[in-house]
Amino acid sequence: MKSACVLLAPGCEEMEAVIVIDVLRRGGVEVVAAGLQAEMFEASRGVKITPDIGLDALAEAKEFDLLVLPGGLPGTEALRNDDRVRDLLIHYFQSADKTVGVICAASLVLDAHGLLEGRKFTCYPSTAPEIQGGTWVDERVVTDGNLVSSQGPGTAMAFALKLVERLAGVETRMEVAEGMLFEG
Question: Does residue 52 lie within any of the structural domains?
Fold first, then answer.
């Protein structure tokens, strides 16, 4: 069974976190929602989220097939400033058999660590001018090697389905989309 770790920080964008977790699970992916802290926190729109586990307790964090960073502020800033997240990202980008998914402002985290150099990516359009590395593409979901990026809350479903496709195949992606009555 394929596996994914979704990194959560206080102030993350709840749609980008919860939709991804839900859709991946519908696609048969084992998902762990790992918080920078283990306790319940408030997301960007006031929704309270409780991680499955705190990042410090997640000894196998480097062994997932997929690492996902939702956007939202100040969640993205917390992810960008956390050395544990930086180390995980570097490990995942160096592993050809692992995938990194970022949505919305989370591309800022990759840029802060020089991980967008030579890559095509997308992010929330108003965030793009802040990013120094890589080539921004104005599309809902962009794939470049082991990086899958997306623009924002409104693209979270398409993003999550692309991640299902990467891990479980096109047929599973189509089944999950059909089961949710999602066209796109």
Answer: yes
Domain count, the chain: 1
Burial class (CB in 10 A: 0-12, 13-18, 19+), 40: exposed
| Residues annotated catalytic, as ranges | 104
Does the residue 39 lie in any domain?
A: yes
Helix/strand/coil for 19: helix
CB contact at 8 A, 123 and 72:
no
What is the span of the domain harbouring residue 60?
3-179
∠ CA 89-28-40, nearest 5°, is 60
pTM score > 0.90 for this model?
yes
Give me the CATH number covering residue 165. 3.40.50.880
Give the tokens for residue 105: 């402002």
Residues of the chain short of pLDDT 70, as ranges, are 60-61
In order, the DSSP letters of 72-122 are -TTHHHHHHT-HHHHHHHHHHHH-TT-EEEEEGGGHHHHHHTT-STT-EE-
- 184 assigned to some structural domain: no
Q: Are 142 and 162 in contact (CB under 8 A)?
A: no
